[in-house]
# Entry
Amino acid sequence: MLLPAGIALALVSIYPLFYGVRASFTHYLYGRDLGFDGLTNYRIIWNDTFFRSAMLTTLKYVVCTVSIETVLGLGLALLVSREIKYAGPIRVGLILPMTIAPVVVGVMWRLLYDSGVGVVNPIYEFFGLGPPDLLAHNNTAFAAVVLVDIWEWTPLIFLIILAGLQSLPEEPLEAARVDGAGRLRLFFDHTLPQLRSVLLVAVVLRTIDAVGTFDQIYVLTKGGPGDATRVISIYAYNTAFLFTQFGQAAAMLVCLLVMLMLLMIVAVRLLRRVAA
Amino acid sequence: MTRRLWARIGLYLTLGLILLIAIFPFWWMINTSLKQQADIFGGVTLYPHNPTTANYSRLFNTYHFAEYLQNSILIVTVSVAVSLVLGTLAAYPLARFHLRFGLNQSALVVALLVRMLPAILLVIPFYIMLGKWGLLNTRMGLILIYSCLNTSFVIWMMQSFLAEIPRDIEEAAMVDGDSRLTALRRVVLPLAAPGLAATAIFSVIATYNDFLLALSLTSTPTAQTVPVGVSTLIGKIQIEYGPMAAAGVVGAVPIVIFALLVQRHFVRGLTLGAVK
# Structure
């Protein structure tokens, strides 16, 4: 019974990883396989300043999105931790952004950001500021892309933490309150430690996802203007499919995989522990 | 008393604002998709003053959306069906038996790792593999890849759902003369039906939404899916905002319907079962 599924899994894990690693040692010309090439691809990307800046942009992107989403999600969850009316409709509204295709998310935000059609420029003009054309300038484009990610994924962290909060036992909290502990003390001494494992799951899963972000950025800016939003997935994609340098792209992805592996092992351990 | 009242008003105002932020981009996209070309550029209007379906008919008549939609429906249906069969068959022994060589643990870990791998890490090997097998730019190629990838998710989700079903029930059925497979089909699966349905819907959402794999592994409307179709409306010199908004709506509507069906299980699905 396990065999068919085992073959299916091997086909999308061990087999492609083998191909990927082999491709990273192969010389490609216009997409044609010209044979083993030693470490040339790794040497090229080692000296590639664009690769380095793409890695840095990715790091910046991940740190910005995940930290802001965690703080916002935690704050909101604490705000509504008590029983509220209309919880159903509110949950539906919050789930919507993360269900639809990231490509559609990108389309929606272009319709908001772009000059002539959007609402962002008119809002700035209403306050007497010039039209910012957020996606057209280096600094603002990065912030605009981060904002979209925050809009899409803060609800997930919020819902995870809310579920965690509602499963916490009431009594220790009550006892501490009777003993005269203030709100901040209660939060840092009781709530936060008990939420730790749920919070960790949320942050680790979100981080792994954020590292691979491609779709929204492709639709919003294609990595531009210049290299302001060119994260590693966009750069690797361009290297492979625009410049047909499969070997170099594969080498980049092997590097990325090695870095991600550690995070994924942490995630697996966490998930198994929480699920058990 | 008044202080509590104000706190409540503040809470609901905040929730209302959050909901508005979550929903408004959706409304703006629908709104834009129903506007005349001239009205799209005619300043901010919160609803279409002269509503038209022209954008939708152009989408289907000139931009191949009927083909994209057909491809998506075929690919999603077949690959989700295949992965449900493969995944459930594998999940059952993993949830029920103590297998040799620590197979229970390692199979689940592999399933999880495959699920978490960002698509960008797999896309180059997949491109090379499908190229070798002559499956580039075919629906068969995408079905193969999605079926295998999704099997990992089904294994992980179904073994947690199956583990929640008490053993006694199927053992009773087997005492009554059922073989293990008939017991699985007649007794266990009906009990696991809600979990199976939720798993199926999550699989549909993930497969329908995928962009990066479909973008890289297909190149013409004979095999391209809806998200790729949406993105083809952008790369042009001039963006067709009306059809682009309509395409976004077409891309979002089926998913929103499915998401509403599983909203209760949503966080469980996205956190891979860590939060119930």
Notes: The CA atoms of residues 116 and 153 of chain B lie 9 Å apart. Chain B has 14 helices and no strands.
